[in-house]
Amino acid sequence: MNEVVHYHLNTFPENITFKYPWRNYQKRVLDELSKHLTDEHLHVIAPPGSGKTVLGLQVMLEINQSTLILTPTIAIRNQWIQRFCNLFLQTSTAPNWISNNIKEPQFLTVSTYHALHALCAKEDETDEGIVDEDNFKDLNFGTIILDEAHHLKNAWWQTLMALKTKLQPKVVGLTATPPYDVSFTEWERYIQLNGPIDTEISVPELVKEQNLCPHQDYIHFSYPTQSELSFIYHQRESIKMITDKIASDAFLVDYLLSHPAIENPEQHLDWIYDQIEIYSAILIYLSGNQQELTDFHFKITGNKQRKIPPLDKHWLEVLFNYLIFEEKKSNKEFSKHIQTVEKFIRMHGGIVGRKVVLENDQEITQYLKNSTGKIESILSIAQFEHNNLGERLRMVVLSDYIRKEYLNEEIEINKLGVVPIFEHLRRNLNSTAKLCVLTGSLIILPEAMMPVLTEVLHHRGLQLSTTSLPYDTAYVVIHLSEKLKHEIVEVVTQLFEEGHFNIVVGTKALLGEGWDAPCINSLILASVVGSYVLSNQMRGRAIRTSQSDRNKTSNIWHLVSVDPTRSDGGEDLKVLKRRFRAFVGISEREQKTIENGILRMEIPYQFTEETAQLLNKRMFQSAGERDQLSLQWNEAIQNGVEITEEIKVPFDREEKNFHRQKKLYYRASMGYLLLELGQLFMLHLMDFYEIAEGFLYAEDRNELLMILCLADIGGLFYFGKKLLKTIKIYSKYRDVTKDLQQIGDALLRSLIQTKIFYSKPEELSVKTFVNDYGEAFCYLEGGSSFEKNTFVNALEEIINPIQNPRYIVERVHQLWAFFTQKDYHAVPEQLGKKKKTATIFHKYWNKYFNESELYFTRNIEGRKRLLKFRFNSLSSELSEKAERVSRWK
Fold first, then answer.
1. Strand pairing of 395-399 and 503-507?
2. DSSP-derived 3-state class of residue 39
3. Could you tell me which residue, 763 or 306, shows the higher pLDDT?
4. What are phi and psi of 781, to 5 degrees?
5. Closest CA to 44 of 115, 146, 120
6. How far is Cα 752 from Cα 738, in angstroms, rounded to an integer?
7. Which pTM does this prediction carry?
8. Residue 629: which of 588, 599, 663 has the closest Cα?
9. Torsional sign, CA 269, 274, 276, 277
10. Tell me, what's the pLDDT at 816?
11. 70 three-state secondary structure
12. Rounded to whole angstroms, how far apart are CA atoms 846 and 563?
């Protein structure tokens, strides 16, 4: 390594100042900086467009030590240096104490995560996770700034942790999207590197400050093309052929009946407890083939009602993955038979690699993701937006692949990509719409703007060489020299801002992260990437404010190809639901509310072609009301002060007015209870009748008694059945409202006593409420962002179905003093790692509920309890899990 030369700098040169006034939220972070840095970390969440780069640079100056800035890409690396020079040093030339090469570090070094890892990884090791600390022995930074450190490869994380351990620097973590959707272990790793979240700058706050524009997400639904539909139906038929055949295999039924865990379960409890899902699949398969199961199987699963879930694709997947790829082949007959079964499943496309896949066909999923029906959606959206905005339209369409081979007018468009989209728009869009292709290796521009482009490039000392499209001379292809590549994107972006063309089709690789074009007022995400993080980065391109259009609003369009063979819309819609967790916007469902998640778009659970058409019509109607969008944001912003992370527990009924329904069921249950009491009173009428029998004839008495008995039996049957039903429904309401508050209180007290939370107890409180859809919400009021996120993560673990926790706690309560209800919950991982903290949680749990048990699951008794609960939760009534949501409150 070259000798490190810092040009004798021990601090940054004096009088380096940001040239603009600080925004309110930026100033807030800077004013609180010393408090945040008490743990040697500053961790800030800030969306695209919030100015987190300049915020990070000012923090760097205030810490005033040699600094290493790490970024995900070279483009963003260069952007940090450019911003520092232009906005702080007020020069276009970087001084010699700034380096962009980690191998030649200076007082300020800006590099990529990949470059740092390449420097530090052992060159002769096949394990890329091995870090050679000798390679960074000369690195000596007092501050490390981590830009977007949320999607690091495992090996990169190891390198960073090794460097952090060696240098013991102050760490500044800046990200637009924290990885809320990862496992607890990954989240803990993320926090270990960046430190607890200190502060979050929210989207509504930025819209309020007029640093982001009012915007809304919309969805356009399409159906696969005829050829795609043919493939999908063929695949479904193949899967049906597989499931029909393997669901009733007489040989396998006999084989499974002789399985040690089925034949002698008492002697194989260890295997059963270790293989709960496989054991469940065997029981379900045998039950589905009308085989009687011994009482012991119901006993160990706690299945008192002897109720076995139906045999479906999921359980066939679990079972046959076990039989084909895991079960020992010591039995020759079994080995021969299962090879035949495997060959049959594979021949019909039910095995991908070494995995049986029946439930979510991967080939169908890929067909839907890349459906060319989406190109028709793009055309419909482009026509709609162009008709609305005309010359004011600044639209960007982002796709994954260029597909240059489609630069041919005679080729049928049957794939999704930049050139196919451009070609379809060129052929079918109104001729007044001017198109552009902008990628790293292909640029196509309107021929009419060549004089302007030539002049701009001439002033920069660059020559332009072009070729007309052979089938449309209105467009030209730019020949990209190495010198031109470095500046052409910036120049084309400038001309886009000026309106020389109004629709750009490009790749997410070039335009998705780091590209800055504040003029964008319509974005179509034609990328198939469902990543929580990347989708938010792409969306961030469109929501920036524009100096040239103070009244800018922005529409962000998402594309879904509906699977006609699935009533829920299919896998493409599932991917979109995951995307929608990443960003907040105006709710179409609840007036004057800002929240995340796809529910705010009022998407139904059941899909038909007519449903898709009606939704598209509604989306276009709403998207056309841009003048209302600013008013909606302003009204919604007035209803809150910050984004709050909450847990939402769904209520699986479709009535929209939950509170009215709750009241109705309460009145009904009370009414049926009174009627039941009336029936009991009728039974005692016979006693009263005995007293008055002297006043009646004997034959009249017998006839009356018969009538009373029949009426009473009929009344008990009719009203008793209704009473039980309404009690069950009402008890469900009780669970999602009252108990959620108590669970939250028990969790909060535990987190305070175990010193996981450091805020003063009186500053923290648990809040719950129920909306008109019956969804119950719970969140932590007060405390730091770290504490709020920790609370929500832990609450989610408690409420959702048990996976494999170290400890389980029982929940017991009495309903109207007549009925005892029991349920079981995971002790959240952060409290369940040690017996001491789990016991503290149990203590507070008992304070809010009746006396209950705490079960350790890593012994025989605990695993038995875990098996019982997990097996019985297979048929849970809730169709949706509890999930974390973000709401402006």
1. parallel
2. helix
3. 763
4. -100, 130
5. 146
6. 22
7. 0.81
8. 588
9. negative
10. 55
11. strand
12. 48
